[in-house]
Amino acid sequence: QYLDSMFLILENGEYVNDYRYVQTKFMEGDILKAKHKYNTAFLSFFNGREYALGNLDDCNVSNLTYRLGIFRYDQKQYQKAIPFFKKAIEENKACWGNNILTQNINEPQQYRNTMALCYEKMGKYDSAAYYYIDALAFLEEIKPKYPEKELFINSAMGVVKGNLGGVMAKIGNIAVAKELLKSSIAINSQPNYDHSDAQTAKLKL
Questions:
Q1: Is 118 left (phi over 0), alpha (psi -120 to 50) or beta?
Q2: What CA–CA distance (Å, rounded) separates 197 from 205?
Q3: For residue 37, how many other CB atoms are within 10 A of its CB?
Q4: Whose CA is closest to 204, among 154, 156, 163?
Q5: Rounded to the nearest 10 degrees, what angle do helices 107-121 and 78-92 cross at?
Q6: d(CA 94, CA 67)
Q7: Which residues, other chains included, contact 79 with Cβ-Cβ below 8 Å and sequence gap of 6+?
Q8: Which residue, 59, 46, 60, is CA-closest to 17?
Q9: Distance between CA atoms of 6 and 50, rounded to whole angstroms?
Q10: C-alpha span between 200 and 186 (Å, rounded)
């Protein structure tokens, strides 16, 4: 009920706060999506990102691009989602070194893992494995740089190993699948780790 007021304040103020305007466009998309108006919802997301491309840096655009991919992913349109995830990975590189941990750790591994999930759901297991391995390599690379985030990074590695193990099983590489799944379970069965993911890995094993 406040959405129109938000646009009114942003558009009629002394200046437009570009980041907040884009976030409001995406909120509009979320509302339309909740009303099952998918075409107009995607248009709101798309127009929000287009505005961002002209007014924000790549770092702040990257998560918007990812959300467009998630919109397609949620609709099971995996082939259409993949280009957005690939673009988000490239745009996120502009964030590196800005010391914003969400943009330096959480998002880049999430983008890779979700893209791998797309390929897995499409039955393209070699491509899925490639991007799961890429996500693991990324996490291994950043781990020494962020000792204070060791638990999160280790847990994320456990999640990716479980996903990769599942793909290895699907392509018949059983020995590697077992090794990855056991490693995933050992990581996320620890106190304060992702126990629900450990349970998923146990089921796969």
A1: alpha
A2: 12
A3: 14
A4: 163
A5: 160
A6: 18
A7: 118, 122
A8: 60
A9: 19
A10: 13
Measure the CA–CA gap between 117 and 134, rounded to whole angstroms.
13
The HSE-up count of residue 200 (CA atoms within 13 Å, CB side) is 15
User: pLDDT tens across 71-128, in order?
Assistant: 999 999 999 999 999 999 999 999 988 888 899 999 999 999 999 999 999 999 999 9
Q: How many CB atoms lie within 10 A of CB 94?
A: 15
Specify the pTM: 0.88
pLDDT tens digits for range 124-150? 999 999 999 999 999 999 999 999 999
Which tokens go with 171?
């392509």
Distance CA 21, CA 17 (A): 6
Measured CA to CA in angstroms, residue 130 lies from 48, 65, 120, 167, 195 at distances of 31, 21, 11, 10, 25
DSSP letters spanning 125-179: HHHHHHHHHHHHHHHHHHGGG-GGGHHHHHHHHHHHHHHHHHHHHHTT-HHHHHH
CA–CA–CA angle 52, 83, 133 (5° rounding) = 115
Contact 139, 157 (CB under 8 A): yes
Lookup: tokens for 174: 């059983």
CA distance 2 to 197: 37
